[in-house]
Amino acid sequence: MSERNSVFSSDPEISARTIALFKEQQQNITEHTDRLFGRLMLWQWAAGVAAALFLAPRTWAGLESSIHPHLLAAVFLGGLVTVLPIWLAWHQPGRVLTRHVIAVGQMLMSGLLIHLTGGRLETHFHIFGSLAILAFYRDWRVLVSASLVVVGDHLIRGLFWPQSVYGVWSASIWRSIEHGGWVVFEVTFLIISIRKSLSEMMSVAERQARLERLNGSFERKVAERTAELTREIQERRQVEQHLKESEARLARAQQIARLGSWEWDVAQDKVVWTEETARLYGFNNEDLGKHMERCLERVHPDDIAQVRASLAAAAQNGQPFKSDHRVLLPDGSERFLHGVGEVLCNERGGAIRVIGTVQDVTDARRAALALQRSEEQLRQSQKMEAMGRLAGGVAHDFNNLLTVINGYSGMTLLQLEQTHPVRKNAEEIQKAAERAAALTGQLLAFSRKQVLQPRIIQLNQVVDGLEKMLRRLIGENIEFATVFDSGLGNVKADPGQIEQVIINLVVNARDAMPQGGKLTIRTANVSLDQTTQFRNRSLNIGEYVMLAVSDTGVGMTAEVQAHLFEPFFTTKGVGRGTGLGLATCYGIISQSEGDIRVYSEPNRGTTFKVYLPRTDAPAIQPLREPESNLLPAGNESVLVVEDDVSVRRLAVALLCECGYRVQEAGDGMSALQIINSAPTFDLVITDVIMPRMSGRELYDKLRATAPRTRVLSMSGYTDDALAQHGVLTPGLWFIEKPFSPARLARKVREVLDAPAPPPSDTTSPNQPLLPLER
Amino acid sequence: MRGRFSRFVIGAVWLVAVGIGLAIMMNYETAAGRTGETPDVWPADASFQFDSTRPTLVLFAHPKCPCTRAGLRGLNRLLAQHSPRPATHIFFLKPEGTDEDWVHSDLWREAAAIPELILHIDDAGREAKRFGVQTSGHVVMYDAEGQLRFSGGITAARGQERDNASRDQLRSCLMAQEGLTPLHTPVYGCPLRKDGELAAN
């Protein structure tokens, strides 16, 4: 108890909790013991009944028997003794009255059992055992109650039924006191034991109280720490969530910008890529792996050396990584990437890792290339335009001069006998004029100022028709071969121009093979499933007819190829080439909506491929009239409008010679005045380029005032004044300058013999082109 | 307060009821059985002759009386402690109309296990009648002269085995060979016959 006192005085909280725990424990013990006795007494009752049944079931009188009073006592008296304690044990456990009633009942049951077992000495131990069990209550008052019952029982029976307890007919009270003394003897030690047990219980309660307070402290700390951890976890989750969102935004931004990032551990050659980087290189992120070489697998073979060099420079010298390279994607397409990276070095300056980005610049690169091409095209166009203007201007005057030279020399030849000594001179003049005309024609061709007279043709037939001439051109030391596609489609082009292109290409091939070789012309149908670029021109998706001229000659360098189609560019030396051949080809093909491409390697030969749009329309065979020395004649009225006096006089003279009724005018205004003041002319022959009023304007006014009058225009080249894109419209005939007297006479006769144009202006660009002749 | 009073009343009633029950049981257990007139001299018509060299002790028992088991065990302990042993006979009642199997009960077998003991079947209780015995557990003891020295029970109450004054008196009679008046003690056991049967015989 001194320990308890010290506990109480030292810490009131501990003391209060100790007492509470002690009482709680005591209550638990009491309730537990109550129930223990409840079961014990029930069992004792049953044991008493069983003992009575076994030892004395019946009592006898002679042959008659009846239930033995012991059995009745076991059942009823035992039940009476037992029932109240059992009821209290089950319904009011832990109460003071309960345990005292149990103590009394248990002692009474001891007495009953002693009697039922014949007063056996052994059964008396039931009393002492019961007292010991009652000590479970740790309540000395219970032992006192039990002791009082035992002592009272002995006193009463010793007084009234001494033989039942002492076996004598009269007993001294001291004998009862003696018996009671043994009980008190045991109870005394039990009480001592109880006090010690209570003291230990109190001590345990105090330790438990202290432990609880310690646990409470721990639990508070644990709770506080748990709350902190929970808060930290929540914060960490929020941070992780924010990080994920940030990473998602970054990934999305990279995807939008087509910008991937990467980090290369130089020492271990381990690379970390973002998904966008993998996508840019055409990999799944999982497939990309961890090594730089994996990524480089997709780099374009032409760029791989440059990329490796840049990486090596970064890894070895710490130079910033920078690389513009292409990658080949699994679908065959290319992607242009721009990569940059910074190098992180250790304290010794060695590269540890390279951190970089790679960006898809395909669109920008293509836009730049397109811009470059556009600029080149623009430059080329401007160049060609300038050349065209120059050529046109020169050709106009030249053609007029050549027309005069050609015309008068032709007329002279018509008038001279075959044996006339001057005739040879006149023929030379005419040949020189024709060569000059051809040269002028080439100038107009490469500048695309020619008047095209396209029709549906088949290139096999064109080549076939040229074959004899071509064989003569190339000579015998060159093997000539043609490979025709039997199912070759038709194209819409000016056959004369196409012939010019073929001849130019063949002549170039011949010149490339001075030691002989093989020249092959091949035709084929070609389908383009995507737009292709070459030089500054592109071919759209569609069906084409390809004509290829291949040689096994000296070939060309890339530098030469770059300038190949420029006017006056030649590798043949002065006096051997004009530099207009391929430019002419290029102009003709371009004007025909096609393209010409060259494939060549030095000493490996050259192939020119001409692509022309394929058409399903049937080919038209031209009607060729037999050549005749006689000029066709007529008596129709003709008005010649020409500002060049020499040409005008030539034409008037020639037409008069042929029998026509001819008037002349120096320009369009004069022509209109003549037309308005005179009867209708059957034919008006007009120059196109004239001062004050062009031939086109004159034509338009004639269509309004004299719609059935035929108009034959003369020109060395075309421009917007005569036709759109060099294509004539119906009702308007054309003869190209320079012309010979015979050509003019036949053309006039042809026009006059043709049906008159419709009375009203019903011309349409969709109407078929008339067959024109130069 | 009311509940406390109720509990007190209930406790008191319970105690009183238990007390009454115990009192009834005590009264029953300490109620002595009937005894007849035991002859002071060995009856001449007894079925056997007393032993002239030592005391002769005869116990009469109902074969099925549970209370007599305590007397039988008391007798056994007495004989074991006394030397020389008296000539001891036990007569088990065999009522009329019963066979010997009825007699050979657990009590018979327990008695048969006691050494130097002679068991008899008292056919129709004639022997008991000769000795004036009416209650099971009644013991008579004659000395070597055939003089009655003890007559009565040797238990403290019905079925009680503990040491008691009656058995002590029998022991003293066995030790004091002569010169004493016969002692009589109450007998606790089942009646050998029901009321009236003895008169009829």
Summary of the model, kept short:
The complex is a heterodimer of chains A (774) and B (201). With 774 residues, chain A is of the alpha+beta class.
Largest interface, Cβ cutoff 8 Å: A-B, 40 and 44 residues
- Relative strand content of chain A: 15-25%
What is the count of structural domains of chain B? 2
Q: What is the straight-line distance between the termini of chain A?
A: 144 Å
Output the number of helix runs of chain A.
Answer: 21
Spatial order of strands in the largest sheet of chain B: 3-2-1-4-5-6
- Major β-sheet of chain B, in short? 6 strands, mixed
CATH architecture label of the largest domain in chain B: 3-Layer(aba) Sandwich
Quaternary structure classification: heterodimer
User: What number of domains of chain A?
Assistant: 5
What is the mean predicted local confidence, pLDDT of chain B?
A: 88
Q: How many strands appear in the DSSP assignment of chain B?
A: 6
Residue ranges of chain B: pLDDT <50 for 5 or more in a row? Answer: none
The CATH class of the largest domain in chain B: Alpha Beta
Helix content of chain A: 40-55%
CATH topology of the largest domain in chain B: Glutaredoxin
Q: What's the overall geometry of chain B?
A: elongated
